[in-house]
Amino acid sequence: MADAPKIPDEAETRARWGAFAWTPENQVKADEILARYPKGREQSASIPFLDLAQRQVGADTNTQGWLPVPVIEYVARQIGVPYMRVFEVATFYTMFNLAPVGKYHVQVCGTTPCLLGGSDDVLAACKNKGLSKGHTTPDGLFTLTEVECLGACANAPMVQINDDNFEDLDYDKTTALLEALAEDRPVTPGSQTGRRDSCAIGGPTNLQAMVDANHDYRGEWAS
């Protein structure tokens, strides 16, 4: 549990977030979300409301956002259910942060395909840039978390940073990515080797002979 995130003191959290309420813009979004569900089914809005709340906290703190207890309580009141019903959702889904994170939440996949593909090198690059699992860098830029499968196994190893996936990484590419983010330079999500989607590294191969043969047939028929 050495890399477990530190949740702030409750008194401090309530002093900072006890008066949380939707911004006017987010109130409009919340009304639109709630309108999707029948009367009596407001609890179905738990996930989108928590996501909206986390993003509002992130905008307020210039981070990826997190969910202080008073914010979860506010969401529960908004949909008319006990706090625990919403807390259960927030603790189940790893996309919700229960402790403060940095501007960039770097989530490194350590599941078998990424491990075999070189996730240890990705973690080494993070470590050598000052990132430590379960902690935020002193400048508030990066929080590092090791997570389970993020669903991009064909392009392993990969990381998710805030809302974006970065795939086909190695030590040098990870280092370059972190340096670009630290310097506020633009980065391109997806494969960092330029491959399209999840094609084989050498380009499309599956059924390629059939595709080529079909193309030749069509050409002959057209002529």
From TrEMBL:
CC terms in the record's Gene Ontology section: catalytic complex; membrane protein complex; organelle envelope; organelle membrane
Coiled-coil annotated residue ranges, if any: none
Any Pfam family hit: 2Fe-2S_thioredx
Cofactor: [2Fe-2S] cluster
One annotated GO biological process: inorganic cation transmembrane transport
Region: Disordered, residue numbers: 184-203
GO MF annotation, one: metal ion binding
The family this protein is said to belong to: Belongs to the complex I 24 kDa subunit family.
NCBIfam families xref list: nuoE_fam
Protein name (Swiss-Prot/TrEMBL): NAD(P)H-dependent oxidoreductase subunit E
Organism: Sphingomonas populi
Lineage: Bacteria, Pseudomonadati, Pseudomonadota, Alphaproteobacteria, Sphingomonadales
